[in-house]
Amino acid sequence: MLHDPDVARANRTARAVRQVADAHARPLDLVVTHDRRAALQGASYVLLTFQVGGLEAYRTDLDIPRRYGVDCVAGDTLNPGGVMRFVRSSPVFEALAQDLLELCPDALVINYTNPMAMNTLYLSRLGLRALGLCHSIPGTAAVISGLLGLGPGYCPTVPPASTTRHGS
Q1: For residue 109, with 0-12 CB atoms within 10 Å meaning exposed, 13-18 middle and 19 or more buried, which class applies?
Q2: So which residues are the catalytic ones?
Q3: pTM
Q4: Minimal CB count within 10 Å: which of 19, 100, 104, 164?
Q5: Quick one: what percent of the chain has pLDDT higher than 70?
Q6: φ and ψ at 108, to 5 degrees?
Q7: What phi, psi does 39 have (nearest 5°)?
Q8: Which of 165, 138, 132 minimizes the C-alpha distance to 154?
Q9: What is the DSSP letter of 141?
Q10: 125 with 117: CB under 8 angstroms?
Q11: Residue 109 binned pLDDT confidence (cut-offs 50, 70, 90)
Q12: How much is the CA Rg of the chain, to the nearest whole Å?
C-alpha cells in the first residue's frame, strides 16, 4: 500500500517502485491511495518518508541558521534547521500516531523521515513501536573506502538498524 495525499505524486512514486521491482524480477502488488486511514488499516509495518512544507520550507531550514552564522550542511539531525524541521513535522507525526494506534497498534513503524533521531524518539514517546533508519551510512562507508584507496566494498557497514542512535 502506498499512501500520499497527492495522488499524482503517489502515482509517480508507484511507477518508480514498479520499475525497481521489475528490474529485480520481484513480484509486486502495489495499491496507491490518498486515504491514510485506509492505507494503515491492519498494517504490520509502516515505512515513513515525507517532508512537511516541501523544498521552500527546507530552504528556510538552511537559510535562517546561515543568517546567524550557523552553516548547516542539511536541515537534519542536530542543528537549528533540524529542530525547525522537527517542530514543523511534529503535528503531522502526532495525527499519524493517533491513526496508527487506532488502526494498527502493533505495527512496526520504520522512520526514514529527517530529522530521524528526533522524529523516531517522538514516535516512540507517542506510544508506537518505532525504529529509525539512516539512509546515508552505506554511502558514507563507500566514500571513506574510496578516500583511503581501499576499493569499493572494503569498508564494512553496520546493519542500518544499528544507526538508530543517529546523532545522539
Answers
A1: buried
A2: 135
A3: 0.79
A4: 19
A5: 85
A6: -90, 120
A7: -65, -35
A8: 138
A9: H
A10: no
A11: very high
A12: 18
